[in-house]
């Protein structure tokens, strides 16, 4: 079975629109017995994207498996509002540069949101460590969650290879990353481990 744990906010208060249960006291028992996978909250139907919408993904291949999904939204965890002005990593820079303090991530109005992205990323890493998650399914193209592709910093829809800030921090800490179209690949990995 899939167990859902709603943890994208540090307060542990459920969202008004949450579809996820939040039984904090049952977390450890569930987690101890199952594989644990971090999932971008928008893929699970949470309306947390910059435009106030979700982006539901087909994760049905994980049904009837012993897996706990932990919902995260790094942008929300970093205290960015929803809806919000979209952000992109500076042109010619990477998420690794941001985590190293050598680049910024700004929104389309030119406002520096680097601190919020870094703090949100650290929160999600703490969630992974707390729940002993070694895998994550994250929303491709997001400046926080992108696993292979992100927008190139020009706000014109052009993509480039690279990870979002949270994906990069999780990767640096040994979490295996998958996007919303790689559910089968993730399952194959979990079945081997
Ligand atoms: S892609 Fe990541 S940061 Fe963006 S809304 Fe979804 S969970 Fe939040």
UniProtKB/TrEMBL annotation:
Instruction: Show the Pfam families listed in the entry.
Output: 2-thiour_desulf
Q: Give me the stretches of Polar residues compositional bias.
A: 1-20
Q: Which residues cross the membrane?
A: none
Stretches for region Disordered: 1-22
Source organism superkingdom: Bacteria
- Annotated protein name in UniProt: DUF523 domain-containing protein
């Amino acid at each position: 079975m899939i167990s859902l744990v709603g943890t994208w906010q540090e307060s542990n208060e459920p969202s008004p629109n949450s579809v996820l249960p939040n039984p904090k006291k049952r977390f450890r028992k569930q987690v101890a017995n199952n594989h644990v996978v971090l999932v971008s909250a928008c893929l699970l139907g949470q309306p947390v994207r910059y435009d106030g919408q979700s982006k539901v993904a087909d994760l049905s291949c994980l049904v009837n498996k012993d897996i706990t999904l932990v919902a995260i939204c790094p942008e929300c965890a970093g205290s960015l509002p929803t809806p919000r002005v979209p952000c992109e990593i500076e042109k010619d820079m990477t998420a690794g540069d941001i985590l190293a303090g050598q680049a910024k991530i700004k929104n389309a109005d030119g406002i520096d949101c680097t601190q919020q992205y870094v703090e949100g990323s650290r929160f999600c890493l703490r969630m992974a460590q707390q729940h002993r998650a070694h895998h994550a399914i994250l929303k491709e193209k997001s400046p926080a969650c992108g696993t292979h592709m992100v927008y190139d910093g020009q706000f014109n829809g052009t993509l480039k290879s690279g990870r979002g800030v949270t994906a990069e921090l999780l990767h640096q800490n040994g979490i295996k990353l998958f996007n919303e179209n790689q559910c089968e690949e993730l399952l194959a990995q979990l079945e081997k481990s």
